[in-house]
Design a protein that fits this description.
Elements lengths: L13 E6 L2 E4 L7 H15 L11 H20 L1 H31 L9 H8 L5 E7 L6 H9 L8 E8 L3 H8 L7 E6 L7 H9 L6 E4 L5 E2 L3 H11 L4 E10 L6 H23 L11 E4 H6 L10 H11 L3 E11 L5 H22 L3 H8 L1 H34 L13 H27 L12 H21 L25
Parallel strand pairs: 3-4, 3-6, 4-5, 8-10
Antiparallel strand pairs: 1-2, 6-9, 7-10, 8-9
Helix pairs in contact: 1-7, 2-3, 3-9, 3-14, 3-15, 9-15, 11-12, 12-16, 13-14, 14-16
Pfam families: Glyco_tranf_2_3
GO molecular function, one term: glycosyltransferase activity
Subcellular location: Membrane
């Protein structure tokens, strides 16, 4: 496989029909089904194979992994002091950078304000020049949530003659198809049926529907989503007030069932900190932003020139965020919330978290196939940021429980040499303790401040359970590592339920 060849971006086809005040871009519905399916599955791996997760590690990556493993084993036997010190120092530096990002995120939270409501003049001025918006909603085994989904999408405040909503179902999923057909769908909603095939993933369905979707802008929503009604207007305003390099705006994600169980509370704290604080911080620092799986808004031209979604990556959102950064596009946070269902049970949470971590591993492996080219695409600052964000987070999930084991053994035995056997590098022992302490304190402070600013201070006490939650994340990380080898493209479905609650929270804050 020639990983070095360059490929031109696929031209964007223009449709002749017009939306009042905007254009209507998209491919004709008459395009043969098999051709569309082939494009959905194979476009990225044909045009940019070095960026496709259809392939596993390349030769040099496998060789490097073997060499490092052998070197660590030999070093542990022949030079245990030096080896231990080097490994410990590398991990300490990585974890310290993660702590620094959390501290910056706290500063972001403390410096933001509530978004101003859209004025009548702004609305009337925008109404004259609305472009067509395409909403893609992939559904799989989601019959139970269909009525609430249609209600939430119908509440969007956007001219329906400039709006197309694609409800995407797999051909074999008859239950969801029947649930959709039982609804009285408005004329701007359509059902898109995806033919059977592999990999049966969300990004494959998105690519297939995008081929016939009509719109200058594209947004993805999940089956259980409740976007705020003015979200499309706010996204459009963000694109118009920014330069052409703005490739995506990511809305805040939060939950409408935070108080149900231990997992819904921890998930809500995590989501609030991530989308209200960390994502805006990364965007402000101009670092790569691994996108969330929903409520990402794109100009269609940028989405298509980036290659669309990778159907073989189980976190197609995070991967696309890195590809956007590589092509020079920016990602910004959007002060609008989409409400989601937090997983209520350990089984559901574990499956979802395993898929997320496996996808992050896939994404990191893919983009590190050619590190020199990645460095050239991103620049030094963004490249270093990616190593901390993705490489550091994956490493911390895998190493975290072992640090507990070694630290516990060291404290119980009174032997600090279990952590740092070299006396001259004894400072690393204290650096390790500092990282552990600072990691917990920064995460607890960030989570508590984030939920308090969201008007949910009752959740703040739950941040004290972060140590337990992190150990469970490590469990999911090792499960993800196993699946990365045994079932890399398997999509572990997250089960959703019909909602009977209403989101209750303050709006997100903006800088």
């Amino acid at each position: 496989m020639d990983w070095q060849r360059e490929h031109s971006a696929e031209a964007i086809r223009q449709d002749v029909s017009q939306c009042p005040g905007g254009t209507d871009t998209g491919r004709p519905d008459a395009e043969p089904e098999l051709q569309r399916l082939d494009h959905a599955v194979n476009h990225l791996r044909r045009t940019r194979p070095e960026l496709s997760s259809a392939y596993s590690v390349v030769g040099w990556q496998a060789a490097t992994l073997v060499v490092l493993t052998v070197a660590l084993v030999i070093g542990a036997v022949a030079m245990p002091s030096v080896t231990h010190t080097v490994v410990f120092a590398t991990m300490a530096l990585s974890f310290f950078c993660i702590v620094a990002i959390r501290i910056l995120a706290i500063a972001t939270l403390l410096s933001v304000r509530a978004p101003a409501p859209e004025s009548p003049n702004e609305k009337s001025g925008l109404d004259e020049v609305f472009p067509r918006y395409a909403i893609l909603v992939p559904l799989y085994k989601e019959a139970e949530v269909v009525p609430a989904l249609i209600e939430a999408l119908s509440a969007l405040d956007y001219p329906t003659d400039c709006l197309e909503i694609s409800l995407i179902v797999e051909r074999e999923d008859r239950a969801t198809r029947m649930a959709l057909e039982a609804q009285v769908l408005p004329t701007h909603m359509r059902i898109v049926e995806v033919p059977e095939g592999q990999p049966r993933t969300k990004p494959r369905a998105l690519n297939y529907a995008l081929a016939s979707a009509r719109g200058d802008y594209v947004v993805v929503y999940d089956a259980e989503d409740m976007p705020e009604p003015d979200q499309l207007r706010r996204a459009l305003k963000a694109f118009r007030s920014a330069g052409p390099e703005l490739g995506c705006v990511q809305a805040c994600l939060n939950t409408y069932n935070p108080e149900e169980t231990f997992f819904t509370r921890q998930f809500t704290i995590e989501y609030t900190a991530l989308f209200d604080a960390i994502v805006p911080t990364l965007a402000r620092l101009d670092l790569p932003v691994p996108l969330g799986g929903t409520s990402n808004h794109f100009p269609r031209r940028i989405l298509e020139t980036s290659g669309g979604w990778d159907p073989f990556n189980v976190t197609e959102d995070a991967d696309l965020g890195i590809r956007l950064a590589r092509q020079g596009a920016r990602v910004a946070g959007l002060a609008s919330t989409t409400w989601e269902e937090a997983p209520e049970t350990f089984r559901i949470w574990l499956g979802q978290r395993t898929r997320w971590l496996k996808g992050w591993m896939q994404t990191y492996i893919v983009h590190m196939r050619e590190p020199t080219r990645l460095l050239r695409d991103l620049g030094l600052k963004r490249f270093a940021g990616l190593q901390v964000l993705m490489g550091g987070m994956i490493l911390s999930c895998l190493v975290h429980p072992w640090f507990y084991v070694v630290l516990g053994a060291s404290l119980l035995s009174g032997r600090s040499d279990l952590l740092v056997p070299s006396d001259e590098w004894h400072v690393l022992y204290w650096a390790g303790l500092f990282n552990l302490f600072a990691g917990y304190v920064s995460a607890i402070a960030l989570g508590a401040i984030a939920v308090a600013r969201r008007g949910r201070p009752e959740l703040a006490i739950s941040v004290l359970a972060v140590p337990i939650y992190w150990l469970l994340i490590s469990w999911a990380a090792y499960r993800a590592l196993w699946e990365l080898v045994s079932a890399p493209h398997h999509w572990e479905k997250t089960q959703h339920h019909a909602r009977n609650v209403v989101a209750n929270s303050n709006p997100p804050l903006v800088t």
